[in-house]
Structures are given as C-alpha cells and as structure tokens.
Amino acid sequence: MRVVVASGKGGTGKTTLATALAQVAAETQAVRVLDCDVEAPNAALFLHPQWSSGAEVTRPVPRVDAERCTACGRCAEVCRFNALAVVGGAVLVFDDLCHGCGRCTWICPEQAIHEEPLTVGRIEAGWTPEGIDLAQGLLRIGQPMGLPVLRALKHWPPTTESASVSVSARPSPWIEIRDAPPGASCPVVETLRGADAVILVTEPTAFGLHDLRQVVGIVQELGLPAWVVINRDGIGQAPIDAYCAEQGLPIALRLPLERRLAEALARGQSLLAAAPEYRPAIRHLLERLRCEVSGA
Amino acid sequence: MKLAISMAGDTLEAAFDARFGRAPFFVLVDSESGEWTCLPNPALEADGGAGVRAAQFLASQGAQAVVSGAYGPKAWTTLHAAGLRTLLAPEGQDALIGRQLLDQFRAGALRAAEAASHDGHHGG
Ligand code: SF4
Ligand code: SF4
Fold first, then answer.
1. Is the reported ipTM for this assembly greater than 0.90?
2. pLDDT of the residue at A158
3. Atom of ligand 2 nearest to the CA of A97
4. Do residues A178 and A240 share a domain?
5. Whether residue A232 is found in the same domain as residue A107
C-alpha cells in the first residue's frame, strides 16, 4: 500500500503525521518512507536514520560540437521549451530550461549534438533505529526542476532487480509512506501518482481551507481516496468540517492545539515521543486506510 | 538602424509594453526612414524561455537594437550573442507610446541595459 501525506503549505504538520504513521506501522510491518519534499526534506530530523546508500541524480542536457554545427537552426526550432537559441552563428544552450526530451539531438542534420549528464541532486537512503527504510531526495541548490530527483526517489533503489519486484513480492503487509512537498504544484502531482490513498493534513484557518481546496482538486482528478487530518484543532474557526462533509471527505483524526506538542515538535521530537497517547488513534487511522484500500 | 520596441498594440502609435518576452507585439522600425512593421510576438504562448524565443525571433528579423523595460538573464545572453543592443525605456513613464521611444532613441536619450535586469520570472 502506498500512502501520500500531503498538505497545502509547509508547517502544517505533514511530516509530523507521516513520521508518526511510519513509526506505528513499523511495529507490525515493513515500512518505507520517501521524503518527496526535495527542496527541503525534513523527515530525517524526526526519524534519525543512518544513511547507508545514495546516488547522484542527473538529467541529460545537450552539448553542441561547434566544429560540426552549421548553425542551421533546426535544433532551436524543435525545442518546445526554448532551451536553445541559434544566434550569431552558434548555439546557446540554457540548461535550466531543458527538459531532456532529446529532440534536438535526434533532429540535428549534422549530428553535432550529444547529451551529457548534468547533476541535479542526489538520493540518500538508510535505516532508522526502529527499522524504517527511509529515502530522501535532495535537489541541488539553484536547480529549478525537482521532478528528475522525485522520479529517481520513487524508483529507489535503481537496480533492475528491485524494479521488477512487484508489490506482492515484498514482505507482506508492506507500506510506503510518501511525505509530499507543500503546495499543489507539479511535484505534488508527481508524488501522488501511483499512490493508493492520500492523507491531507490541514489546519482550521482560512489559509488552511484555501490550500486544502487546491490539493483536494488534484486528488479528485487523480481519483484517489482521501482522508483529512486536522492539526492544531481549535486554532481558528474556518468551516473545515462543513467543507469536508460537502466533499465527502472523512475527517480521520484531530490533533488539538497544544503548546506542549508544538514545543516538542519544534525541538525535533516526533509526535509519538512527545505525545504517546496518540498512538492508538494513529494505529486506528492506519487500520482504516488498510481496510478501505485493500477492501477494494 | 533597425530598432525593435516591445509593444502592447500593433502600431507605432500604440502603448509600449515593458515586458520583453511577454509583450504581445514588437514594432520593427527603421530609425532613419521611420518606416515600421509590426510583428506579433511568437514567444507569447511559450511555456518557458519566452525571452530566448523572442530574442531569437528579433535577431532573425534583422533587428539591431531592442527597446524594452527589462531583460531576463537568458534573453539578455541571447540578444548579446546575436549582437543586438539592449536599450531600456525610461522608468516611471508608463504611458509611453512607440513613437515617443523612437524619438528618444533618435535623440540618444535611451540608456543601455548593462545586465539582465531581473531574475527572468516575469516575462524575461
Ligand atoms: S541542428 Fe545541429 S547543425 Fe543545426 S544549429 Fe542545431 S546543432 Fe547546429
Ligand atoms: S533536449 Fe529537448 S528540451 Fe532539451 S534542449 Fe533539446 S529539444 Fe530542448
């Protein structure tokens, strides 16, 4: 089972919940956590893994052999992303606009273009003390596109052997928890793709409701079953309950606004270390997901 | 000199548009004879790299200098590689029309852009 924990914006409590779910699940089953927030991964701060493996993530970018190039302009013509310009008798390549589609290399009549790997980030993976298999993607500073890192993370580890291992061949029961990036943009869609269920963490404020609406839109488009978790319940008066009822979204859990909790989390303590009394509720949430997803 | 001015409308009398890559039109005007043609900006629909596309387009149209309000780094690089001069319309004069910029150019009153003027997220 693959579960995504998403929310509208950073600081809503997404990672708190994702790590708590992982810790509870690890008591009875094999758990993998993917920290998909490649711009600012922070699940490791709560789960304390020992990194034991990793890999660079690259994407191909075109390089032009000036000796062969006749500045015919074909490559720039076929690039849908305007990553190439043929001006002044030479080709300019803008790496950060390139999507690596390979069209320019393919179309060049002089075979003057080849592709080179550009490092855009890395994957780090390891085990936590409770036996959770944790992997995170790290986008290199200044790189504009996180998707290649995210894709590499979703397919981690990259060996052909494990790529062909089906879910049923994994130790059973098996769960993958993806901590989504904040917001409702392309990386969030990519994180949601291939998931079986979604947990949407929100807070009962006007901003929370606004962000929730946007993510719910994507989740519904992808046709994924979703549950809502309200964090800092009591902080505001926004009509989250009414919205959820209207959308048919079950509210699975409420975490009240508590100073003690907020302080512990700010210190990097996990939810369960700070408030063990939430363990049954989280276990219940997990069971509920498992029933409804596998009951299909 | 063939001058390209980023424009909101399709005549020399129309309003100037300060966005280089996202201006709807470019008016291409011969600064000596005053003859002009108007070209729709082919980069308008671009998902990314609008500035690169627009710069390349103007180079292919034979422009030798550009007047706009701001150049993203990629547009600036492309324009300079193509040998075009990048000029800036005076700031704070929002209501300029194309002909006024042509006059300012003839009077030598337009400042050259020394570098890309913004990070390129707003139309460069
Ligand atoms: S298509 Fe090939 S030969 Fe033509 S401009 Fe591009 S690199 Fe040069
Ligand atoms: S690989 Fe594709 S996106 Fe990249 S420069 Fe070539 S045509 Fe453009």
1. no
2. 63
3. 3
4. yes
5. no
